[in-house]
Amino acid sequence: MRIERIKEECKRDFLPLLLIGDEDEGMIGRYLGRCELYALYDEDLRAVCALTREESGDAEIKNLAVSPAYQRRGYGRVMVEFAVESCRAPGRFLYVGTGESPLTLGFYRRCGFRYSHRVKNFFTDNYPRPIVECGRRLTDMIYLKRPL
User: Fold this and answer.
1) Residue-range definition of the domain harbouring residue 125
2) Helices (H), strands (E): how many in the chain?
3) CATH, residue 72
4) What is the spatial distance between Cα 58 and Cα 67, in angstroms, rounded to a whole number?
5) DSSP letter string over 96-144?
6) Region of poorest pLDDT, from 61-70, 77-86, 119-128, 131-140
7) 75-87 and 102-110 are packed helices; what angle lies between their axes, rounded to 10 degrees?
8) What is the pLDDT of residues 19-66, one digit of tens each?
């Protein structure tokens, strides 16, 4: 298993997998140019993680996606731990914003993230079509954080 940083000129090649983590190409375009993109390979491509480093010194996972054929095999957790280690800074946090989906929130909680704050109507205000996960329409962005 290996994790590689993706060169700027190759980031869009990973769009099909990034669209699993964020359904809107326009939203991905907002952060793709300013993020560090990492790909996890275990024989073939298994997962991607887009990380931004904020001016505050904190970091944020903007997108974490595992290929459907390899989900629930620990690759997402490996990417989270990689993000924590690569962004480690005392007194700082790693954030992730997600919809109010029990599966996604449960995953991040099991990875050590805790509730930080909520951005009301984020999905309804910023996405052109409704996003539904686990039979529930997403409206608010839920931010979670984990100490680095």
Assistant:
1) 2-147
2) 5, 9
3) 3.40.630.30
4) 27
5) EEE-S-HHHHHHHHHTT-EEEEEETTHHHHH-SS--EETTEE--SEEEE
6) 131-140
7) 50
8) 999 999 999 999 999 999 999 999 999 999 999 999 889 999 999 999
Distance CA 93, CA 113 (A): 10
126-139 b/e (C-beta count within 10 Å ≥ 16 → b): eeeeebebeeeebb
Q: Which residues pair with 3 in a beta bridge?
A: 40
To which residue do tokens 């090649």 refer? 13
pLDDT digits (tens, 9 = 90+) for 77-108: 999 999 999 998 888 999 999 999 888 999 99
| Tokens 């887009």 belong to residue | 50
| Alpha-carbon gap, residue 91 to 100, rounded angstroms | 27
Return the structure tokens found at 84: 């924590």
The total domain count for the chain is 1
Residues β-bridged to residue 22:
none
Residue type, 78: V
Q: What pTM does this model have? A: 0.93
